[in-house]
Amino acid sequence: MPQDAIRRHHITQRGQDHPPMVFAHGFGCDQQMWRFVAPAFEATHRVVLFDHIGCGKSDLSTYDAERHSRLEGYAQDVVTLLDALDLRDVVFVGHSVSAMIGVLASIARPERFAQLVLVGPSPRYLNDPATGYVGGFERSDIDGLVDMMDSNLLGWADFLAPAVMGPDSPPVLTDELKSSFCAADPYINRRFAMATFLGDNRADLPRVTVPSLILQCAHDAIAPCAVGDYMHAHMPGSRLQVLDVSGHCPHLTHPQLTIDALRAAVAG
Q1: Is 140 in the active site?
Q2: Domain count, the chain
Q3: What confidence score (pLDDT) does residue 1 get?
Q4: What is the helix (H) or strand (E) element at residue 15, kind and residue range?
Q5: How far apart are the first and last CA of the chain?
Q6: In the annotation, is 30 catalytic?
Q7: Which residues of the chain fall below pLDDT 70?
């Protein structure tokens, strides 16, 4: 069973035997996006990296169109992975959509988790005028993105990558993200985008029982500060830390700040 999970998710393990830190990547990315941060913890933790099904070097044959149409399916993958490797007291570090995937996994199997670190999380990307919720996007924005994914592979990557990385990101990192978007299987990537950007997991936040750190970038076009404030207000036992940086990927653009925040969270 562990070998099946290792093959399915292209799992990489380094460092000590215990305690484990599991790093989960965002939409359109893979585990290489943690390369500036994860090695800093190998001397003190068992560092586990993996690719979501359909991303990176995961086994595409295990993609299930029905199960992976919702974030709960990806959370089920995470639970299966933790069970297969028998990981306990996990510090789960999830970026962007993986933050919510980690939230759902922790609700399903709280006994496996010691802490959640949620980097740029969002329980709902769409604005909801009826409740006053600000997610940052209108439905027309997401529909336009999905339509562009169908008709213009390079165009949607050129549009989304700069917004994700932020205006101060080195061009080499923005180009890397564009390449990552374009390298993913188009069908799976489109469905993952819909699961990510059209989902609504706000009702799940009060169900979290694991201590959580919400790591928010001060200037983030994908998950604005209003989202971090909302999550902090609705997640019991959560802490909110705002990094005074731009962009949605501080682990790439500001790795030392991210490492420092993670170390403080683990120590705390």
Answers
A1: no
A2: 1
A3: 53
A4: strand 12-15
A5: 34
A6: no
A7: 1, 153
